[in-house]
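Quick one: structure for this chain?
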Amino acid sequence: MNGNEAVNWSLQLFDTTVALDTNEDTEQRTQLVAVINNLLHNDFSKLLQILYRIDVDENKLKRALFESTLPAAETIADLIIERMLQKIHFRKMYKSKKKEE
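Got it. Here's what it folds into:
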């Protein structure tokens, strides 16, 4: 389980056409930040729908945006990646439990 997997999954949810030619976590995170920044300025309702679909905790998002010194798009990207990593972890955990049964 790595950040690459979480970022790739996140970018798919954003229906982005950004080329993912690299395996570098930082470059893919930068692409995710760019997509989020674009939505912040051009289609905020779509961003909210995606955050709801990903299941980013609303209160955690508000706290992070208020407390963070990073730009909003970077803060949101980090929360999305964190949530996707949690989902990946739980899916792998439950998948291995099913194999044991």
